[in-house]
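Following up on my earlier message about magnesium ion. Here are the inputs again, as you asked, copied directly from the submission form:
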Amino acid sequence: MSENIISFENVYAGYDGVDVVEDISFTVERGDYVGIIGPNGGGKTTVLKMMTGALKPSKGRVLVFGRNPAVFSGNERAKIGYVRQERNIDTAFPVSVKDCVMMGLFTAIGPGRRPGKEHEAMVMDALKKVDMDGEAAAHINALSGGQKQRVFIARALVHKPELLILDEPTTGVDARRQRDFYSLLYRLKKEMNLTIIMVSHDVSMISKQVNKVTYVNKGVHMHGSPEDVLSDEDTCEVCGMDREVMFHETRKKHGAHKHGDDCNCGK
Amino acid sequence: MEILGYAFVRKALIAGTLSGVLLAVIGVYVVLKKMSFIGDGIAHSAFGGIALGLLIGVNTTLAAVVFAWVIAMLIGISKKGTKTSEDALIGIFFAFTMALGVIFIGFNKSYNADIFGYLFGDILAVTDSDVWVLAGVTFAALAVIWYYFKELMFFTFDEEGAQVSGIDTNFIYFLLLTLISVTVVVSIKIVGIILAVAFLIIPVSCALLLTRDFKKMMALSAVISVVSTLTGFAFSYIFNLASGATIVVTATFIFAVITVGVRVLRK
Ligand SMILES: Nc1ncnc2c1ncn2[C@@H]1O[C@H](COP(=O)(O)OP(=O)(O)OP(=O)(O)O)[C@@H](O)[C@H]1O
Ligand SMILES: [Mg+2]
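Thanks, got it. Here's what our run produced:
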């Protein structure tokens, strides 16, 4: 029996009274790896914001772990790790890489208390996972964009969430690290029994990694297996992908190619 | 040194030190969260409270604290609930409360020349009860900051990230507004309404140039603030200048020296 971790039921949402996504319905089950694709301004980030409870739908219902995420308690929120899209937050802020990742544990530590040795160890552990432990003492401002991104991924993982939500996590990360990152995600997913939702424009990667694809473009919405969603005319059109390539990718995934633990496609 | 023999001088020094520490510590959040304008709006709204206090004959500090706090809450609530931008809202409340203050003063037949002291500060007019109130508020505010240190820091650094990770960001936001309103108002006797915001900002801006560690920066801001308050006070006493203004001029001078100094040293 699979458990629904997220369900959207006829959801409409937007800003200042204007809906930017309409009539979205889909479910995510425990252990799913969902890729969200769609054009710029299509509403991908808007959908993620509803999962975290940062934005309430104007119509319809969003449930995460069976509850409305907008009224989550601290403990419930700690089940989610979120890496948002705009990571260009105030670079002048005086904070080190280690302190930044530590923030991910603040809810668990609770008010009035200071982080202890065990928390330090968790932070270093998370930094190791993203290959940034060497930079632990550096000031956040001294990092490159891609390095900053990895620090924020470490922050999303440090409290060992069940659900990891990533908004374009590999933008600005070099090709080698992107590959590393995808295999890392896949490994973490198994190790930590994660459910992953990831927005990405990298459709060919999506088709290799995920088991569900959600396509969001304002009123248009599709959700299903990668081969169904990615072979659709509209989706290909908007993603600017060559249909042949896409078919090839999806066939590769579901065809002859066998995936093993050490197979380098990350799957 | 014989001036220290005067009780009013001792009181001025104690009050100056307390408010210097208090404003600098709160100023760290005001500057890093880019809330200077809201800080200024709250300081100005205290004017309405002071005028009301004078009119109905209650303690002006108490009246101003309540008034400024109510306005701060109104700004916070309407920021969350309307389409009007925060800047515009602050401007509206700011003008409204100053206008109310002027009307209240108009009602007050026994026109009180003290108003000038409230606008620009008069450190020599500090009374015993002012010192006690200031000491109590400083202690309470520092205790609250100590207790919610992590939460305030995360909120200031990355509000959305903090919310998603389970920090009650609404609570922290209103807590911060409360801290700003209370600390600004109790400091008005010393630096005045018009100059209060300078006190929130200048020491922190100096400290930001000197360190990249959050805690060190907070401590350094407090030191710079106290140094400028005491030096400014000495100048104002010796040359018979307006105390609040002299303190702010001194602080600005220190800021200029540090800015130039840091540039020269980096070359
Ligand atoms: N805070 C906001 N206030 C007003 N409108 C917004 C806000 N955030 C997004 N929008 C609008 O909502 C629409 C969808 O935005 P969203 O950020 O969800 O798109 P996206 O699919 O994530 O795009 P991208 O690929 O560029 O990240 C856009 O038209 C955008 O202008
Ligand atoms: Mg987006």
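One observation from looking it over: The mean pLDDT of chain B is 88. Hope that helps, and feel free to reply on this thread.
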